[in-house]
Write a structure and sequence with these properties.
single chain; 357 residues; alpha/beta; Rossmann fold; D-amino Acid Aminotransferase, Chain A, domain 1; six-stranded antiparallel beta sheet; 11 helices; globular; metal-binding
Length: 357
């Protein structure tokens, strides 16, 4: 009797990412469905390790990129998740959101776009009021570089020009839009899409704009507890899925999430505010099933295409054609379970005329 074919995935992750993502629950589920998750030894050349059917990574240094290039030359049929060139675009917050303009969604009931934004490269530009004519306060300021570090995730809610003093260029400044204090996080793993809702920054009232200061109430946990997140209606899944698969095709990425808010001024308009490569999937309920199903999709694709299943042979196109509206279980590797909804509040800290997030 022929030995069962197993799918070998080599993963190269920083220790913190490895600890949060490679959990026993994921490893065991994947193993039960014919998939082995194997740690890549950072002290050895990648080309000397394996064999792998797929390499899963989130490393950005030049040495790793060289190793990955050498590896794909030696093993052109190994699937790499994802291409460093495609990932690079998400390291710049301006470039990452430009892809939204390239999307075409058939849904006529809802609309989508991005926030008004400008880039501030230095202090002189920061305090030149002519650069602010296109924006109205309050604004959200974020580091221009989005490399996944703790620093790149820091944001500030700025209520007036005085609050700009605390910013350190280069930054991207986006106009703040009231959105009911809820943000929708859409996780994408290939053709599999899951949307969850989290608590976000609270809406800004006219009184706060007049006072030019955030109130203590804004940062009080009791205020968040008054919110009824369950009452917030989720965006139509078909609409969100179209955006997700559109982003996936344009960016040529398989592992990412994007943040969406609903514009309170126009209930059927949604704004994409951020896109992240290989996010914290473990924060998503049932992430083990979602990721294992995705790995099985890749396995099935390799079986379908045989040995010629490199990225250039059509990996992206094969994985991106289906409009999946729910996490499905019809993979080659068996089925899995669904998860529930996770809610996580964002904490904010008041500081002068801006709020650090």
């Amino acid at each position: 009797m022929a030995e069962e074919k197993r799918f070998r995935i080599g993963y190269a992750l920083l220790p913190k990412k490895q600890n949060s993502f490679i959990r026993d629950s994921l490893v065991n589920l994947a193993r039960s469905r014919g998939i082995d998750l194997i740690r890549v030894d950072p002290n050895r050349s990648l080309t000397d390790q394996g064999p792998f059917d797929c390499v899963l990574h989130k490393l950005y240094d030049d040495d790793w990129k060289r190793q990955l290039t050498d590896f794909t030359v030696k093993y052109p049929n190994v699937v790499v998740l994802d291409s460093p060139e495609s990932i690079e675009r998400l390291h710049n917050r301006i470039l990452m959101l430009q892809v939204v303009s390239e999307l075409n969604v058939d849904d006529q009931s809802e609309t989508f776009g991005i926030l008004k934004q400008i880039v501030i490269y230095d202090k002189d530009t920061l305090f030149d009021r002519r650069n602010w004519e296109a924006l109205k306060f309050p604004v959200i300021a974020k580091p221009l570089v989005a490399d996944g570090s703790a620093k790149s995730h820091k944001m500030a809610l700025v209520f007036n020009h005085d609050g700009l003093n605390s910013l350190k260029p280069p930054v991207v400044v986006q106009e703040f839009v009231n959105h009911g204090g809820v943000i929708f996080k859409v996780y994408v793993a290939g053709e599999r899409v899951r949307c969850v809702k989290w608590k976000s920054l609270l809406d800004v009232g006219e009184d706060e704009l007049v006072s030019n200061l955030a109130t203590d109430e804004r940062t009080d946990d009791r205020y968040y507890k008054m919110m009824h997140l369950d009452d917030t209606e989720m965006p139509p899944l078909s609409f969100i899925t179209q955006i997700a698969q559109g982003l996936r095709r344009v960016m040529r990425l398989n592992l990412f999430n994007f943040d969406v808010i609903q514009d309170s001024r126009c209930g059927n308009r949604y704004l994409i505010v951020d896109i992240n490569y290989f996010p914290g999937y473990a924060k998503m309920p049932g992430y083990e099933t979602v990721l294992t199903d995705f790995f099985c999709d890749v396995f099935c694709m390799k079986q379908q295409w045989g040995e010629d299943c490199s990225e250039n042979a059509g990996f992206d196109s094969v994985m991106g054609n289906k409009d999946v509206r729910q996490i499905m279980s019809n993979t080659c590797c068996g089925d899995g379970d669904e998860g529930g909804l996770q809610v996580s509040p964002l904490s904010v800290e008041e500081k002068d005329s801006s709020v650090q997030v």
